Amino acid sequence: MSMATTTAPPGVGAAKWEKNLSAHVICPECKEFPPNLEFPGSHETVCGSCGLVLADREIDIHSEWRTFSNDDQNNDDPSRVGETSNILLNGNQLETSIAGGATGAARQLYRAQNKLSSEKNNKALMAAYKEIGALCDGFNIQKIVADTAKYLFKIVDDHKAFKGKSQDVIIAGCIFIACRQCHAPRTFSEIFAVTKVSRKEIGRIYKSLEKFFTAQNIERSVQVGTDQGFKQTSSTKPSELCERFGSFLGLDYRTWRTAADLSDDVTNAGDLAGRSPLSIVAACLYLVSHLAGAPKSAKEISAVVGVSDGTIRGAYKQLYAEKDRLITDEIVAKANGDRANLPQS
Ligand SMILES: [Zn+2]
């Protein structure tokens, strides 16, 4: 286990110490140069030509982490590290947790740990996140919206706000606001359909949450001097809803795109003022689908948008009366349609 070095004669009069680059490690048996070294176990150096172990018990600099992944079953996964810390949970999740199912003192320890409030808090949060995740999954809402909803929920939870409200209502409100913040707005009725929280409740919690988040944001911007953060959600524009409802109806891109433009024109011009955005969307989809020669009945649209077919026809009549102004050549060209396709009612 010896190592030999050949050293060139040291430079004469060298004032400062420098690494001697002329020194080489070679095998004392073969004296091969350059040496044929191998590092089989990464903690020893072996001569590749004669097999002499030149150095052993070296420090192994390999990582020794575990990921606890499923491939770990055969003990062939050498990495030993857990997940990254989740910013949606409290603390940095570096605690040791004691496994359940033991007896005696271990069982008592397990129970004592379960009583810790920080752990309990995280468990409640996890349950709420799971609920939000499940609701969003079942509702085809993107992950970014679900994560935003979770983040909003955490702000509420951190401030111990809305203590009297049921968690389901707060979750419904957070999902509703998250959808708007991520520019994928859903209507109260759609949120109601998944969360079973009544429209009235959602409307109420939405207003209070909005106020709460805006107030939080002001506080936070004072603290850290940033103007980023919670932006007050603007009310949903009818054109933002056209894409989703259009694809539910099986309309092609041209048609719903034109309906979106028309609904913007209608909103800006103040036609149908006082009617809900949903009625405007429904009437525009009805009109443009007829214009484009792929008509959808008021009943079909009613089933998707969730306003009565009577309302759709009423709104359409108002639009039809103004057709000379609203149905511009641009709209007709965009929809690739014909004004003659438009029905009287
Ligand atoms: Zn050798």
TrEMBL record:
Transmembrane segments: none annotated. Keywords: Metal-binding, Repeat, Transcription, Transcription regulation, Zinc, Zinc-finger. Pfam families: TFIIB, Zn_Ribbon_TF. InterPro entries: Cyclin-like_dom, Cyclin-like_sf, TFIIB, TFIIB_cyclin, Znf_TFIIB. It comes from the Eukaryota. Residues 22-55 form the TFIIB-type domain. The keyword 4Fe-4S does not apply. GO terms for cellular component: nucleus; transcription preinitiation complex. CDD domains: CYCLIN_TFIIB_rpt1 (cd20551). The keyword Kinase does not apply. GO terms for molecular function: RNA polymerase II general transcription initiation factor activity; TBP-class protein binding; zinc ion binding. One of its GO terms (biological process) is RNA polymerase II preinitiation complex assembly. Belongs to the TFIIB family. General factor that plays a major role in the activation of eukaryotic genes transcribed by RNA polymerase II. Associates with TFIID-IIA (DA complex) to form TFIID-IIA-IIB (DAB-complex) which is then recognized by polymerase II. This is Transcription initiation factor IIB. It comes from Talaromyces pinophilus.
